[in-house]
Structure formats: C-alpha cells, structure tokens
Amino acid sequence: MDQGNWQGPTYAEPGVSDKVFTTDLVNRIKDNYCVDESRVYATGQSNGGGFVGTLACSPGHGGQFAAFAPTAAALYTDVTGDDTCTPARSPLPMMETHGTADPTIPYEGGDGRGGPLPAIPEWFSRWSRRNNCS
User: Fold this and answer.
1) Short-list 96, 36, 97, 98, CA closest to 68
2) pLDDT in tens, 14-47
3) What are phi and psi for residue 94, nearest 5 degrees?
4) How far apart are CA 74 and CA 49, in angstroms?
5) pLDDT tens, 92-107?
6) How far is Cα 56 from Cα 88, in angstroms, rounded to an integer?
C-alpha cells in the first residue's frame, strides 16, 4: 500500500475520499473558529496540487473555497475536458504555477506515475472557457 497521497492518481488508496475529509475539516474549522468564509483558499504542490484541481472540479466539495492555487500540479483528474470537471460555480478563480522544465509533472503533459497528465496550456484553456474568459 502506497500511503501519503491525495485522491486522484492511480496510486492513491482506493475507497478513500479526501474530498469528504477536506470538506469535513473545513466545516469543523468554520464551526469552531471565526473564519471569513470568503477567504478560504485551497493550495498544494505536485500530488497535493492535483488534489486542489480535483476539489475545484467537484461540485459537492469545491464550492467552499474562494480560489484555488495549485503548484506543479499532477492534474490526473482533469485530463480530457469537462467530462470529469463540473465546478461548483463560475467563475472560479484559479492560478497554477508550473515550470516548463519539470521532469516529474511535464509542462507539456504525458504519462505520469499516477496516469495521464494534461498539457498545462491546454488545462488553462479549459479553465478560461469554464470561467467564461476570452
């Protein structure tokens, strides 16, 4: 068993819903602390960044976040288009930073350790369209 990975890649633990865990955690924090709900953000790097993308594409779990900022994200769950991505709202602020020479999560996409990866420019184009940006 490969542990310590967020939901999304093929190597993630089957049957574990990190989306439910994250929603429950954010709700618990909101219930117990003074939180400006318009300033709750999601960010992560590599596999964690890919999970941020998974949250953004989830209508039941992404709506609690004001914006998303994955870095060098392994975007395994948003590879081909809108068939796996239904954001909770539009526009949904998104910022992804990614190096063009990244050997682990290639900027131009391809096969990653956890499945196919989208080319980052193609992925950005989909988010532009989802957010009704020209």
Assistant:
1) 96
2) 888 999 999 999 999 999 999 999 999 999 999 9
3) -140, 130
4) 6
5) 999 999 999 999 999 9
6) 8
